[in-house]
Amino acid sequence: MKIAPFTERWNDGERDWRYVKDARQDIERWEGETGLRLPAGYRDFMLRFNGGRVYPRMFHGPQAPWPPGSARAPRPTVASYVDLIFDWACVESHWRGETYGEGVPPQHLVFADTPGPVQLLMALDAQHHGQIVTWHHSANAWGTDGNDTVHFQASDFGSFLKSLVDEDGSDHDAWHLPIYDRLAREFEV
């Protein structure tokens, strides 16, 4: 698997691993304040890379659900891709409700996005701790106006990363930037 850095000021020329902030103190502070502990695999990944762009990045997930009250059958899964695994500052911003307000399911971290309406979340409650789910983002309060469903994707962060594919190699050029030849790092899950 490969990962390339993504920095807060990437478009301003900060295109190197040295610009990736060390997230250790912020994660430890957050864990202390919330009383929650990040799942080990995800925590290790964030301490090592603090987010980034992974390859391969394709996964199969559900399409947007039919409108509430519809008698139609569930839609089939479709291929999507992880656009960006957020850095800790962005994860924490989502945790505080700065993007979706009360729309995010309780006890879930928004940790990555796709190019469409799907966000990738990690469950932090005791029963589902570490599970990865997809969520069709909404600013409607969780449990209201059709914002009441998440879809299981993987049992943990490592399993999710291992499930990412590029079966025919066709996504590599979409992921790859010439600068990645110098910056992308190989890593084992």
Automatic annotation (TrEMBL):
Q: What is the lineage of its organism?
A: Bacteria, Pseudomonadati, Pseudomonadota, Betaproteobacteria, Burkholderiales
Q: Which Pfam families match?
A: SMI1_KNR4 (PF09346)
Which part of the chain is the Knr4/Smi1-like domain?
21-163
Domain of life of the native organism: Bacteria
User: What InterPro entries does its record include?
Assistant: Knr4/Smi1-like_dom, Knr4/Smi1-like_sf
Q: What protein does this entry describe? A: SMI1/KNR4 family protein
